[in-house]
Amino acid sequence: MRIEHAIKQLLTTDISLVEISVESGFSSPRYFYQKFNNIFPEGPKEFRKQNKKKQEMKEHCGEIIDPALVLQKYCGLFYSHETINSAQNRWINIDIFGPNDQKSASPYLIKISELVNGDSHKYLKMILQVNNLSPYKVFGFEETLDSLNPDIKILTLIINKFRKNDIYPVFIVKTSSKAISEQITTIQRLLRNYTLTYGAEHLKGWRIELQ
């Protein structure tokens, strides 16, 4: 309960860490840091910085998305891993905007040609097996797509193949990217095309993760 109170103070106020430790009922700031770091290794200062930035980007991106397109029941489109880690293998993390940071987990590169040809079942099954074994792995595409204007029809087809296997997309958007507005617009186009092709009811379960 003390940590929960501290988190609320970190995210909703600008008071110092010392004041937060006192208000949250910890005997000393040092004890507060120790207990907080046991749960969040980055520490309270960096935790506040990262999550405030994420919140600002969520609000910014929420303004970009056309509210007439994203129905009210999909208002929870923006999520982070912490909030969807239950049954995680029902989601597949996809970066459609370019290569991932090789310093993190190496991305599994999907061959678009293997997924759009007539005999894609075996290849799709292999991807789902990889995703099931390592649900936090980020998948990219082996073939190069225009980072600002990928082929929406191909992406729509690929995403629908995952949907038929009860797997939902988590689109990875880097908050550090200078093209974040264009990337959100691209996802908006994908939402629109998918809605027109397969119906808005199948958008349920889609996620956008800001990293």
Count of strand segments: 5
Major sheet details: 5 strands, parallel
pLDDT averaged over residues: 75
**Oligomerization:** single chain
Which runs of at least 5 residues are low in confidence (pLDDT < 50)? Answer: 63-86, 100-106
Overall SS class: alpha/beta
Number of helical segments with 4 or more residues = 8
Helix content class: 40-55%
Main β-sheet, spatial strand arrangement: 2-3-1-4-5
Backbone shape:
elongated
Alpha-carbon Rg, integer: 20 Å
Strand proportion, as a percent range, falls in 5-15%
Number of spatially distinct domains: 2
Tell me the distance between the termini: 27 Å
Secondary-structure element pattern, one letter each: HHHHEEHHEHEHE
Q: Can you offer a commentary on this structure?
A:
- The two termini are 27 Å apart.
- The protein is elongated.
- The protein has a 5-stranded parallel β-sheet with strand order 2-3-1-4-5.
- The longest helix has 22 residues, at 43-64.
- The model is unreliable at 63-86 and 100-106 (pLDDT under 50).
- It has 211 residues and is of the alpha/beta class.
- Helix content is 47%, strand content 10%.
- The chain has helices at 2-12, 17-23, 29-39, 43-64, 112-116, 121-133, 152-163, 180-198; strands at residues 91-94, 108-110, 138-141, 168-173, 207-210.
- It folds into 2 domains: 2-49, Orthogonal Bundle (Arc Repressor Mutant, subunit A), CATH 1.10.10; 65-210.
